[in-house]
Every structure is written in structure tokens, then in C-alpha cells.
Amino acid sequence: MNRVSHKRKLTISGILLALYIVIMMATQGFAFGQYQVRIATALYGLAALFPFSVPVFGLANLISNMIMGGLGPIDAIGGCIVGLLSAGAAAWGKRMGLGNWIVIPIITFIPGLVVPLWLAYLLQVPYIILASSLLVGQVICGIVSYILVNAIKRVRGTMNNETAPTQHDAMVMSSHEGVIAAHDEFTSKEVRSYGKR
């Protein structure tokens, strides 16, 4: 596996943190409360490609709930835990060799079933009603996450395979080296024959 430099990890982490908060600010009208579609949670799936970003998503959720949620420290800390669990599960699933599809159930069920545990108390709404509404919203986020992870994987390749040459690349490199060797040999003969004149 190729190691990602510390500087690059910090850069990617900063981008993901900012992106999560910006998306939350842009979608806060339907990202909080009893009926919510929290599109920013689709970013949790990126921990499958960038496992070092797991703590970032916990922090991003904590900050978002503190400045936008309005439900106090229970919601902020709970959101932080859900961010860590969801992103951690995505990273673990990828490490276990599961396909990118794993982000769909992770992002659907962890936030959809865990968040209502404290929202039911804070909002005085039955757990089953909250869980039902959140699961519907999280399914959308899970599908968006799957599309996002696949798109990034296609653009930059997985971190496991970034520099591995394909069979076609190896053949092209081999034939290119053969042409260079033939050219060097021909040039060498020309130089020697010129010297004999």
C-alpha cells in the first residue's frame, strides 16, 4: 500500500472538514429536526478511501451540531460519536475487502438507528417514528455516498493501486525499451564504422 504523506493527509482532512460544514450550512433547512436528510453524511463513505479521515468526520459532526443544530451538547456529542462510528465502519469495511456498496447500509443504518436514541428524548417524539423518518433520509445519503466513492475511485484510483502499472503499460514500456536499445546499438555501430574510415 502506498503511504500518504503527513502533509497530504492534513490537506485532505482539512478539505473534508470544510466540505462537511459547508454542505451542512447549505442544507440546514432539512438536515435537522424530526424529518431530516443530512446529505453531508454521504461524505462518511470517503473514509473507505481515506481511512485517516475517520476522526475528521466525528469533529465535523460535532462542530455542525454545535453551531447549527440548536439541540445542545447531547446532540453535539452524539453526532460526533455517530460520525466516528459511520466513517470507522466504512474504513473497516473497505479494509476487510468488501466492495464500495458497503457504504450504503453503513450510512443508512448507523445514523438512522442511533441518532433517534437521543432525539426521541430531546424532541419528545417516539423512537420508532424518528427512526422511520431518518432511515428514509439516510438511504438517499447512502446511495449518494456510493456514487461519490465510485466516482473518486475512478478518477484517482484506490490508494492500494495508485502506481501499479497495468499489463498494457508494462507491454508499452517493454517495447519502448526495446526500441531504445536497438537505436543505441545502431548508433554505436555507426560511430565505430565512421571511426574506421
List the helices and strands and how they pair.
Layout (H helix, E strand, L loop, with lengths): L5 H21 L1 H4 L22 H16 L3 H23 L7 H12 L1 H8 L3 H30 L10 H30 L1
Helix pairs in contact: 1-3, 3-4, 4-5, 5-7, 6-7
Structure summarized in a few sentences:
Helices cover 73% and strands 0% of the residues.
Structural notes for this entry:
This protein is mostly helical and 197 residues long. It contains eight helices and no strands. The chain starts with 5 loop residues before the first helix and ends with a helix. Mean pLDDT is 82; it is low at 162-166.
Q: Which features does this protein show?
A:
197 residues, mainly alpha, globular
Oligomeric status: single chain
Unreliable spans? 162-166
End-to-end gap? 57 Å
Strand content: under 5%
The backbone outline, from C-alpha atoms, is globular
- Give the integer mean of the pLDDT values: 82
| Helix-strand string | HHHHHHHH
- Count of extended strands: 0
Radius of gyration: 25 Å
Structural class: mainly alpha
Helix coverage percent: over 70%
The major pleated sheet works out as: none
Helix tally? 8
